[in-house]
Design goal:
By secondary structure, the protein is mostly beta strands. The protein has one domain: Tachylectin-2, Chain A (5 Propeller). It is built from no helices and 22 strands. The strands form 5 sheets. The chain has a 5-stranded mixed β-sheet with strand order 1-18-17-16-15, with no helix packed on it. It starts with 15 loop residues before the first strand and ends with a strand.
Length: 311
């Protein structure tokens, strides 16, 4: 599971760090050759579990494997019921699962609220990683009116046991672009604690006003924040990272992309939604040259000198 980090001070990204070498040393491995977007991978004592954005009657897709490279077996719906605050047919996006100290598993997800329809973040709990998960509470965990929608939840557990939530604010066409935020969670994983901190904002031309799908890794002396940029339907959708001495900042964006259609030699179309777990980076990409399904891909990843290296 991802490491999680420390809340400190507001962040302004003002410079760049050197990007890793562009091309992966090995070809991406296609693990799930069917629609499995916005993947979240969880390592447990019983193997590996994956969760993805649902469609139709399936709210949250699941898959399982004994090893990180697979073979992966696609399962059923992780979310047992629709939360009281959410539209039943509005979609359930970009799940994240973490395990609490007492063994409880918590599922985080985005869904449109019944009143107003904007995307908000909710939680559900289960005794097993694969679920089924029961919605917690009758209100969203995060639903900031000024954000124009909150999506892409990801949790991060610091080495001292403190737990944090990262998520994206959508932004508005006439207002600030999207941003990635950090907020501390209480021990139950379902209650916010203290104010939130802005970690990253879409301030580069290539990002097309979009930063999303965050995932954090703690290396020897740095915190690396992986994120997607551009619009997900575009072939220009790509994955970048930023680096900081603590999760609170100041984050410095790498001077270049980590994953893109071009850098992967066209083998993956629009690689994004990355999740880094146990020496592997997992991400989705469009299948078959169309825009109807995104499969799950994987590459090995290491961090020599606190810099990500693929393959």
């Amino acid at each position: 599971m991802r490491l999680k980090a420390l809340l400190l001070v507001p962040v302004v990204v003002a410079s760049f760090v050197m990007a890793p070498s562009a091309a992966a040393a090995s070809a991406p491995r296609l693990l799930i050759n069917q629609d499995f977007p916005d993947p979240d991978i969880v390592k447990t004592a019983w193997g590996y579990f994956a969760f993805a954005t649902g469609a139709g009657p399936t709210r949250i897709r699941t898959a399982a494997a004994a090893a990180p490279e697979g073979p992966w077996r696609v399962g059923g719906d992780a979310l047992a019921a629709v939360p009281a605050w959410a539209k039943p047919d509005g979609g359930f996006w970009a799940p994240d699962v973490t395990q609490l100290a007492d063994g409880t598993f918590v599922l985080y997800f985005a869904a449109p609220q019944t009143a107003g329809g904007e995307m908000c973040l909710g939680t559900a709990t289960a005794k097993k990683a694969e679920g089924p998960y029961t919605p917690a509470g009758d209100r969203p965990l995060v639903c900031e009116p000024g954000d124009h929608g909150d999506i892409d939840p990801q949790t991060f557990l610091d080495t001292d046991g403190s737990r944090y939530l990262l998520y994206k604010s959508d932004g508005a066409p006439t207002g600030p672009p999207s941003a990635i935020w950090l907020q501390k969670l209480q021990a139950d994983g379902r209650t916010l604690a203290g104010p939130r901190t802005e970690l990253l904002r879409a301030d580069l031309t290539a990002e097309m006003s979009v930063v999303e799908a965050s995932s954090v890794v703690k290396t020897g002396s740095r915190y690396l924040l992986f994120y997607s940029a551009d619009t997900f339907q575009s072939t220009g959708y790509h994955t970048c990272y930023a680096s900081a001495p603590s999760l609170g900042g100041a984050f410095v964006k790498a001077d270049g992309k980590l994953l893109s259609t071009d850098l992967l030699g066209g083998k993956v179309d629009a690689p994004g939604g990355a999740d880094v777990v146990d020496g592997h980076i997992y991400f989705h990409g469009w299948l078959g040259g169309g825009r109807t399904a995104r499969g799950l891909y994987e590459l090995p990843i290491t961090f020599p000198g606190d810099v990500p290296r693929l393959g």
